[in-house]
Structures
1.
Amino acid sequence: MIAPVPIALTVNHERVEALVLPRLNLADFLRDHLSLTGTHVGCEHGVCGACTVRVNGDIVRSCLILAIQAENATVETIEGLSDSGEIADLQSAFHQRNALQCGFCTPAMLMAAQDLLLTNPDPDRDQIREHLSGNYCRCTGYHAIVDAVESTAHARLERAG
Amino acid sequence: MTPGMQTAGLSPLDRPNSYIGKAVPRPNLERLLEGRGQYVSDITLPRMVHAVFVRSPHAHARIVGIDVTEAKTMSGVIAVVTGAELAKVITPWVGVLSHLKGLKSAPQHAIAVDRACWQGEAVAAVLATSRALAEDAAEHVVVEYEPLPVVTNVRTALDPATPIIHAELGDNLAFERKIDAGAVDDAFKRSDKIVDVEFIFGRHTGVTLEPRSIVADWAPGDRRMTVYLGNQAPHMVQNIVAKHLDLEEAQVRVLCKDVGGSFGVKVHIYADEMATCALSKLLRRPVKFVADRVESFNTDIHARDHICRGRIGVSHDGTINVFEIDDLTGVGPYSMYPRTSAVEANQVIILIGGPYTTPNYRGRTRVVFQNKNVMSQYRGVGHPIACSITEGLVDLAAQAIGMDPVEIRRRNMVRDDAYPCDSPTGLKFEALSHHASLDKLVAMMRYDDLRAEQVKLRKQGIYRGIGIASFIEVTNPGAAFYGVGGARISSQDGVAVRLDAAGTVICQTSVTEQGQGSESMTAQIVASAIGVSMEKVRVILGDTDNTPYGGGTWASRGTGIAGEAALQAAKVLRGNILATAAAILQGKPDDFDIVDGMIVDAHGQQRIELNELTRIAYFRPDTLPPGFQPELMATRHYVPRQYPFAFTNGVQASWLEVDVITGKVKLLKHWVVEDCGTIINPQLVDEQIRGGVVQGLGAALFEHCIYDETGQLTNANMADYLVPMATEMPDIEVGHQISPTLESELGAKGAGEAGAAGAAACVSNAVNDALSPFGVTITEIPLTPRLILTALGRI
Ligand code: FES
Ligand code: FES
């Protein structure tokens, strides 16, 4: 087996240095090395979207990139977005609208929804559905999630005046 | 309103600040919203090792030998264990229930001992310090197989020429049931039209987003096994783990906390989960097993996979005279333990024709063994099949006599004032609302406008269809499901409530939570019944050490059964609190009420807060009248006894467009009206319905476990097994009728499976409606573009 290699990156605004096997993917690194278990693993082959995190500002599937590829990167997970308050309104909308049942898809769904709202502050329902289509949810049937994202968008627009 | 009136007459549930019927948000979701839940896949224990299973690549093969020498020397490997070795610590099981007469199966081992019977059955386990290292070593376990003949085709499974999977059983027939009610042959003779078609339902599976996960922790010092498992029925698991590992039930604690989706997939206990418990006992340390997605497809229960011939006889005036079915389903090589693999077929045969008055019905269902993954109960259990067959036949009958699909249903559905009544198959209906539900649906969807739009668009070459499906649903099952068949699966639930020293309510319930809202439902009922705010109620569930004994969450039973137990327990506690208040305030219990956590008197005057009452009860009992002992805890259990099941009903509609060039179906809108009796939280009910609908829509259009003739599952990954994603799904409008069950005070029936029951049937009917100008009828799901284009003769 190839020996571990050192990596250094920023995770949720904290500097992290670690020795990792080159084959380790970012999802497993976050979960197993940093105990950031809010990043979930549903398929490990890039389809379900449960492992979505932000790397250098873009959402990516952390099961599809290696930890060593995140060298020097800025990684943000659901724990980071929650602590900074960036998505507090979106989380509250999900809560009020019951846009989560088991909650396993939720961290990644929030990541994807926030990504949409940052680029398109006033999406229609079809655009919301389209943008969330890389994130599988078995519980909700999506309708409530679309409602929650839509109401957050409207509230943000109103606040922005 | 005076407090005296409230306690004497009105149920506490009707009080002005009751939470019953309110769409309050579920408590304690922040944890999940912030990524701070604790799913089993997140759990790590000291000295924990990871199990990976070596699985048979053959659908049927003799295990000639297993060479573990090299694997054992690999980095991080703690042990490699074969089926024969594990069989020394765990006994095999047979998945039968005595009330499913004639059901047979063969002994199944936690890890196959000398024969693998489906592709994916575990043949050895590798334990290592990490999952990755265990996977590395698993590749070096050398298993020599002698392939055996496979049985995959259900149509030929019973032919004399077909090999028998378990020779000792004599044939491949697991179960057969026949029903003959009324005068079927006569009814066909006097029918003006007879429709006779074959329905085909593909195999699909649950695809919970969190795969099955277990951590088993045998603590030799305590002689106790703690099992962390994503499961719907902790007490069932406790019983089975104890039974097969030679332990007392008290030695086993099962914890079911955050679960990433269940839907019936996680109401069973699987061979690899039992193996994980046995491995922990063998190794005397915690063992974790998390299925990967490929394993999920190969080993999570599959469902449906029915081929069913259906016949209906109808008169010109629209009277449906008769239904007849001949159903055949293949369930894998073993009947699943302990709930068996015959329940789905049994549900299909009893539910056919459910909404209708038709007295003549003949049915046969046969369940056969095959060398594919095991099949068992998945959300809806039989309902989607029975509904698709019944409603498919009704639509075809309407077409045959030129009658509108809504009209033929109106003419044949059981009248709303006909209850209580029995079905021809002996089902007992307490109170249903087929007509009111259909009327509401027709209004919600603006049926006539849609028909007009459909006609207009057809002229432009746009083919849209409307599909309607009404259904009945089995909920709140009593002992009739499992208990009478000898399974130790409780049909009753228990709830304990206590007022703690700070004046807050702790509630322990045997119902479990997988996202349905069991915790919210329980807190809403308890808070309303006692007279406190929901924030003052903490609900504890999913722990066999810390909850009363009960069934858990499955078969749409949580609210109807555990909800009633919660109500009754909370009412007793309320009475005990009022008795304590009376003792403190020197009055009679009836003189007081609890409003918003405050004891008030007959004039509505606030007297003392609950935390003052508890201070006195717990810390200054010396100040209470002599002989008075406050009992600030109460427990109640409940199971319905009068009706074996509380039937509910509903009706759904789909509006969709078929692209006749590409064969693609675009879902435009979906409507549901259902009747689950008293609604505790309308938002939670609606979301259960929507989630279930989308599972049914997935089955209708995409989901299919595709096996080749050698028994290989060819699409065991999420790229090739398609699930519904947001963009393909429509908005879903939900409406309600409310016919409470009078058997319980709460009046609630189940709602968890109504969505799944009718969704696929609507889509099939809508596709056939859309394609009616082409004279094409398709009675198979999933309705893939290939299937549609083939039917249209385009490919
Ligand atoms: S776990 Fe990464 S996409 Fe499914
Ligand atoms: S809430 Fe369970 S998968 Fe989305």
Note: The radius of gyration of chain A is 16 Å.
2.
Amino acid sequence: MRRHPIQIIPTIVLFVTVVYAKSGAEPSAENPFQNSDSARAAGQKLFARHCAECHGPAADGTERAPSLREFVRSAAPGVLHTFIKNGNLRSGMPSWSRLPDAQLWQLVTYLQTLEPR
Amino acid sequence: MIAALRIGFPFLLILGVLASPGLAQERPYFITYDHHMEEPGNLEVATNPVIGQARGISTFIGNWTEFEYGAKGWWTSEFYVDSQHTLHDGGLLTGFRFENRFRLLLGEHRINPVLYVEYEHINGADKTLKEVVGFDRKEGHAKPNWETRLEHEREFETKLILSSQIKGWNVSENIVGVKNIHEGVWEFGYAFGFSRPLALAASADACTFCRENFNAGLELYGGLGEWGDVTFKGTSQYIAPVLAWNLPSGTTLRVSPGFGLTDQSHSTLIRFGVSHEFSGFGQQVGKLFRRNRS
């Protein structure tokens, strides 16, 4: 029995999907908001809204999640951005890819101004 | 509807005492799922009425009340109670659903697959139109409640959810398969949605009406026939713009006027949604149990 050419379409779609999915998100570049005061303020607002429930209002940790004050200063902005975007689903840090990149950079800007305690 | 509220209200009260509000960024879709999971330990409570209208059918309000819990970062559980009220007929509870969603890849990828499995026990009077599958037709909603409530459906449902974030846009595709546990063949459906916040960067000041709090998009969903007869024809198809407003208090309001595209569809399905997120619900309940034990 000859196969109709259309029958190959699902295979192609599956193949392209897998290759595309595997290729992953592109690595993040520089923080476009480096040292911007308004981005810092926006980041602080976003932090209170999305992160404080676990990391505490001052980012020094709660029973749900660790303090961010040590990690964020030493981390490169791009690394921090990628980490927040991906989260660590296994250990309970949600993925924040639902926030647009600009907001993630605003969060990074704010976090990197925190002093260690 | 009233019955659902009667169940929902005391629940909300207990929750209000137990947990503080969380402030999530909710998807605007009613039907389509994306790959974003509930934050672990958080509980979201939502109620989603839909007003359906079509020629030759009494106007109705279907409703689902949902409790969505973040069991793990990669696993979200949901429990639904469905109800409806039909003009010139009456209202009733129509059943429940229990669903689980699992992220198949933990990191963020261009396409993020999620597996969805659900068990539902509803009767034929259900009018939530949350899953449009098989050869769905509006005539199914023309019969009186006393008759349809006697049809019991125990169904197993599964979805493959594919979702991507592209430059602030979310694009999600869902393939749906539903099988009655005792009889019949697999029925299929689909949902496709895309959406974007009205502003990508956040403003510096605290605001309720700023553009970043609004998320707008479009959903398309409908039946795909059944095993051995997969088709777009002879079944319901809908197109529905969606708009969500995330209030700083942790409440999200959503609205979506939907329009039927085929003769089998209802002419309009207007959906509303109110949801509220309770942060740290799991931890609070855990503490309650530990305290009682000591």
Note: Chain B touches chain A at residues 20, 22-25, 27, 34, 36-37, 39-42, 70, 72-74, 103, 105-113, 162, 165, 167-168, 170, 197, 200-206, 212, 248, 279-280, 283 (CB under 8 Å).
